[in-house]
Amino acid sequence: MEALRNLLAATLPLQARFLAQRMHEALPKMLAAAGPGEAERVRRNFERLEATGAGTFALIDYVNFKGEGTLETERYHGEGWGLLQVLEAMPEDGEATREFSQAAKAMLARRVRNAPPERHEERWLQGWDARVGRYAE
């Protein structure tokens, strides 16, 4: 356990670069998968968030938390909950991290509503809401 802790501590800059790289590599995939007429909205919202430290953190955290939203496995009944769907659901007229947080909560609630009942995903919603709620702080 101590060796693992030392490894993780010694590689923090590398880990941070990996997370940031994943975020940047997600954008072209999301633009290709965006709904009709949504690609520019996705790009604008991504860039609005990326322009601030808190927004960059939200993008990095969410894509590593719930995925890009481009895969069929990131959908129930054809409706996704990944970063793509959050960026599509964001309004574009207010504070970006607050809008992102609210859209993320809506997409996660939709995920729970659409989930197979036997998965009991509602048990996770309060924690998910708390996590994405911190993006707006």
Question: What report would you give on this structure?
Answer:
By secondary structure, the chain is mostly helical. Strand 1 and strand 2 form a beta hairpin. It has helices at 2-10, 12-33, 39-50, 53-66, 83-89, 96-114, 122-133; strands at residues 75-76, 79-80. It starts with a helix and ends with a helix. The protein has a two-stranded antiparallel ribbon with strand order 1-2. It is globular. It contains 7 helices and 2 strands.
What summary fits the major beta sheet? 2 strands, antiparallel
Rg over alpha carbons: 16 Å
Number of strands: 2
Helix and strand sequence: HHHHEEHHH
Q: Give start-end ranges of low-pLDDT stretches.
A: none
Distance between the termini: 34 Å
Global shape: globular
Beta content:
under 5%
**By helix and strand content, what is the structural category?**
mainly alpha
Query: Widest sheet: strand order?
Result: 1-2
Count of separate DSSP helical elements: 7
Mean pLDDT: 96
Share in helix: 55-70%
List keywords for this structure.
69% helix, two-stranded antiparallel ribbon, 137 residues, 7 helices, mainly alpha
Task: Map the helices and strands.
Elements: H1 2-10, H2 12-33, H3 39-50, H4 53-66, E1 75-76, E2 79-80, H5 83-89, H6 96-114, H7 122-133
Antiparallel strand pairs: 1-2
Helix pairs in contact: 2-3, 2-4, 3-4, 5-6, 6-7
